[in-house]
Amino acid sequence: MEGSKASPEGLEKLRELVEQIKVAMMTTIDGGILRSRPLQTLEVDEAGAIWFFTSATSPKVAEAQADDNVVNLSYAHPDKQDYVSVSGRPTLVRDRGRMERLWTKWVEVWFPKGLDDPDLALLRVEIEQAEYWDSPGSAVGRLYGLTKALASGDKSALGENQKINR
Fold first, then answer.
1. Domain 4-165 adopts which CATH fold?
2. DSSP states of 68-80 as a string?
3. CA distance 23 to 73
C-alpha cells in the first residue's frame, strides 16, 4: 500500500529481505555530491532500526551527521528480483554489550584491535521511510507472473511492492 504506516507484516517482510540480502549501499551527501559505499548489515532490531559496525572517524559518519542527518540504504538481490530502499536517520552508538553480541571474525579484518579499538562504533539507522519489491521465490514463479501480466495486464503475480512510513 502506498504511503501506509508500518504494519507488523510490512516491517517483518522488510526485515526478512534485508537479512537475506545483507549488504547495503549506504548513500550520503558529500558537498552536494551523492556517495555510496557497501556496509554489512548486522541486524534489524525489534524497533526496525538497522545496525552496522563503522569507524567513528570515517567520512561516511561525518557525511551522515551533516546534511540534515539522513542516509539512504539500498539493498538488491537481482537474481531473485528483490529490492529494498530505506531512508533513515543515522546515530553513532558506542554500546559495548551490543558490539560484543554482534562481533564476528569478519569485523576483525577491519578492526584488528578488536572491541577495544577506540575508533570502533556502531551506526544505527532509524527507518523513516522504506519501500520493498519482493518477487516470487522461484524462476518458474517469476516467469508465471510475467506471463500473466503480459496476457492480462494483472501485475499482482509479479510480486509485492510496499511503501512504509514510520
1. Pnp Oxidase; Chain A (2.30.110)
2. GG-EEEEEEETTT
3. 9
